[in-house]
Design goal:
- By secondary structure, this protein is of the alpha/beta class.
- It contains 13 helices and 18 strands.
- Helix content is about 35%, strand content about 25%.
- Helix 7 packs parallel to helix 8.
- The protein binds iron/sulfur cluster.
- Iron/sulfur cluster binds next to helix 6.
- The site of iron/sulfur cluster (SF4) has 9 residues, from helix 6.
Length: about 425
């Protein structure tokens, strides 16, 4: 039997990119290649990139250049770049980075790989993913692209307009994940709340179908555009224990003037009403949001409004980005941009306010008993320290629960009594296994 050729795969960026990357790995394996964790021994290296903002692009360029060193110091014969950076910048970058042999597009990468590597045609039915990351928690991408026109965002330019995946194809993949032991299924898209608006269905109908067709213990939805969080969706979340009471809803700002300039909806008062509605209907709701500081035109008065709003809303989780001007977006041309140092100071102020809010919310959970899913463990069997998450915490972006002297394994869902809390994380001890 001929020896398998080795390829290395480096994934950068968000959860959507993770899923795309897993499809690329699976495709390479179907073509007879074997994944290796060692870039030095791989003859083919693929870097799957992000290009959302400047820091992501810088990371992409650095990682591509780092991997290109294995052409001299390792076995690498071919270096490929996939993902958002490749899609958007391949023309310019191919001149400045001759080390890269192939730039893959987001829409036609299968054919491009097939042509470049002379693969025999691989069945288009082979929709599998090579699952990476946590054993019992996996992402399920339900749509691609975005049709909103947020003034600062380059995603629609890179990923195109919003397209829902056909419902049956999402369900098939959900069942495929369930058969591989997945217990927490996380629905992702650039805007999950718009699912089905282009195809006569809806996110509510999709979740109902996933609930009926699978036995995932936890279903989590990420990336809800606030203007499309409907009462129907809230009722579904409130009435179904298998859906995590988690609202990942980027708001970006609170001031009406800035929201208008950002071309985002809804305005400030409707956002307040929405937050109140979520907390009334879904009583244990955890709301995560993100804000941008330093958007063109943001004055101290606008920022003070945002500070007041954050204090009022007491979000469970919050991320803050400083504004990054992206060529091709509407706000790239906007004047009156605050200095980057001002944007940074404002973001640090918000983070400090949120740190105190988060610490106070978590400390109120001391002594409560809550279900957690175990992500990883270390130490001797029976006396391990496990890292777990609650239904109110998504992987990578939110806090964790450290479970001391834990007898359960990664993937188990157990009950934990919270014994200590810090700003963003908690510690607890195992009470009982909910499932094994
Ligand atoms: S909704 Fe999100 S992905 Fe879509 S344009 Fe706005 S910020 Fe970008």
């Amino acid at each position: 039997m001929s020896e398998k050729r080795l390829f290395h795969f480096l994934n950068l960026g968000c959860s959507k990119n993770v899923v795309d990357g897993e499809s690329i790995i699976a495709f390479m394996e179907l073509a007879g290649w074997q994944l290796t964790q060692s870039p030095a021994s791989a003859s083919f290296i693929i870097v799957n990139t992000c290009a959302f903002i400047e820091t992501a692009r810088t990371e992409a360029v650095n990682e591509i250049l780092e991997m290109s060193l294995f052409k001299n110091n390792g076995q690498c014969r071919t270096l490929a770049v996939a993902g958002c950076f490749s899609q958007r910048y391949c023309k310019d970058a191919s001149r400045s980075m001759p080390e890269v042999d192939i730039w893959l597009s987001l829409t036609n990468w299968k054919q491009e790989l097939t042509d470049y590597l002379n693969f025999a045609q691989i069945s288009s039915k082979s929709e599998t993913r090579h699952l990476t990351g946590l054993a019992a928690t996996q992402y399920l991408k339900i749509a691609e692209g975005c049709s909103h026109k947020c003034a600062f965002c380059a995603i629609p330019l890179i990923r195109g307009s919003f397209r829902s995946r056909p419902i049956q194809s999402v369900i098939d993949e959900a069942k495929w994940l369930e058969n591989r032991g997945v217990r927490e299924c996380i629905l992702v898209a650039q805007d999950s709340s718009c699912y089905g608006r282009d195809s006569g269905t809806s996110l509510v109908k999709l979740i109902e179908k996933i609930l009926a067709s699978t036995s995932f213990e936890w279903i989590r939805v990420m990336y809800l555009y606030p203007a499309f969080v409907s009462n129907e969706l809230l009722s579904l979340f409130a009435g179904e224990k298998r859906i995590c009471p988690y609202f990942d809803m980027p708001l970006q700002h609170s001031s009406d003037e800035i929201l208008t300039a950002m071309r985002r909806r809804p305005g400030h008062m409707d956002t307040r009403k929405l937050i109140e509605r979520i907390r009334t209907v879904v009583t244990d709701a955890a709301i995560r949001t993100t804000f941008i500081t330093g958007f063109p035109g943001e004055t101290e008065k606008h920022f003070a409004h945002l500070v007041e709003f954050v204090k009022w809303a007491r979000f469970d989780k919050m991320g803050v980005f400083t504004y990054s001007p992206e060529k091709g977006t509407a706000s790239y041309e906007f004047s009156k941009r605050p200095k980057p140092s001002t944007a940074l100071r404002r973001s640090e102020t918000l983070i400090e306010i949120q740190r105190e809010i988060s610490a106070s919310i978590l400390s109120s959970r001391k002594n409560s008993i809550i279900p957690v899913i175990i992500d990883s463990s270390a130490g001797k069997a029976g006396k391990q320290t496990c890292i777990a998450r609650t239904r109110r915490d998504a992987p990578e972006v939110d806090g964790t629960v450290k479970v001391l002297q834990c007898k359960s394994r990664p993937g188990n869902i157990i009950r934990v009594r919270i014994t200590a809390t810090s700003d963003y994380d908690m510690t607890g001890r195992e009470e009982t296994a909910l499932t094994t």
